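MxaL protein
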Amino acid sequence: MRRPCFRDIRFWLLLTALLCFLAALIVPAAKERKDGIDVLFTVDITGSMNTRDYTENGRPISRLDHIKEVLRQTLIDLPCQSHVGVALFAERRIFLLFNPIEVCANFSPIMDSISAMDWREGWEGDSHIADGLYRAIALADDLHSDLVFMTDGQEAPPLPWSGGPAFDGKPGAVKGLIVGVGGYTLSPIPKYDENGRPAGFYGENDVLQESRFGIPPPDAVNRPGYNPRNAPFGDVHVNNNEQLSSVREPYLKGLAQKTGMAYTHLTDAPDFIDALRIHATPHPVNVMVSRGPVMAALGLFCLACVYVFLPVLLWLQRQSWWRRRLPPLSIMVR
């Protein structure tokens, strides 16, 4: 019977690989302390979110599709014992899909809910951003979670010249982020027919260009056709490019200052995750981290040394043109 050669390095590498694979199976997971968060993601699904001013793999994608990709990557990054809820915004109302739930135990349903978000779920075409934000803040406060409100900030119909509604809550009571979505240059808004099929883009006459509600602006008296009773806004046609869309960053920053939240512009997932870590409220959690993958990788490396690297070195040593460049391996390999 041929005895194993204990002076052969391959024997020790195979033994090490065996021990590593056994350790990967039996070594218990270790506790690691991380910062978890509880957050309600509220996503604007109104028509302007269909604007394609982001790119993915060289092709244009809509703002809503980019949000979904960023949230999917964010969900992967969050540690276990973090809690995530998802809500949709349209008109001025917030529709809660589900309360914040633990991310690891409910990873698949959360991911499926994010992937299924669609503009067709909207119940009305208007977009009252400030009203929606205030309601989202109240909802997050009831759920005892932080808030991430993702929108391009385009009010439809436009706000009156006197401004938007006042915030009657307590600034800073709910922490989180207002996320400005979209590019800084004006882009056309896709238009769809009643069956949800593409029908070009919105034109100048398809949308309201200014608010005709409330008190008219001070310069209305100088407009053609002005009548204080019958035509307080005049009869002149105004084009404020409301048929085009870009992120309304100054407006969203003003809302952030008014509500005590932070603002960030959505670029990519790493930047968004960094901003979320900075502005969300962390709570320490103990996460079980498996050592198995590390031990298994070490075992695979040992096997690669035996069946790949050492045979290559032995072959090179037999080549006369390379023999002088390598130390002799006969002492280690028998």
